[in-house]
Amino acid sequence: MFERFTKGARAAVTGAVTHAERAGADSVTEEHLLLSLLDQKGGRSSFAVVALGLTDRRASMESAFAEARRRGGLTKADAEALAGIGIDVTEIVAKVEGAHGEGALAGDRRSRRWWSAHRPFTAGAKGILEKSLRVALGRGDRFIGEEHVLLALTACPGVVADVLADHGATYATVERALYGAGGEGQARAS
């Protein structure tokens, strides 16, 4: 599938690996893909992230990711579902951190792969890349661009999509920023 990626999409993927390395993460996540897209200049996705004001709110998004890691990676929907059955995630996080230290649910962010430079992609990150292919094909595009990766990040439920939506970047708003009003009505890839 990588052969179908444009230069910009390849740069987004390799940039995600760089972000994972800098963070000392064992694997490349959806968050790393988004951070890499936010770093890009001059591509279609960079136009959309600037138009939506995401580059100006990067610190806020990184803070939201840190808070989600602190909750053990639970999405808002997960926390709400647990609240619906009487489980208060905030209370559990406080108790775990009280016993084991702040950030205990975030897991060890330090790499255990000291012997290898290879960082695998998580199932979620792989799913984003697969979804970007479906988004591209759904739009009638032959190649996968970084804009397709950005759209896939908004379309796949999870922490990254939650954070993007909280910052005004939904599938519809990103699609409008990328393609204008004429971009709507295209079949949303499933």
Automatic annotation (TrEMBL):
InterPro entries tied to this protein? Clp_N_dom_sf, Clp_R_N
Protein name (record) = ATP-dependent Clp protease ATP-binding subunit ClpA
Which of UniProt's keywords are assigned here?
ATP-binding, Hydrolase, Nucleotide-binding, Protease, Repeat
Task: Enumerate the Gene Ontology biological process terms.
Answer: proteolysis
Q: Which residues form the Clp R domain?
A: 2-184
Q: Which is one GO molecular function term here?
A: peptidase activity
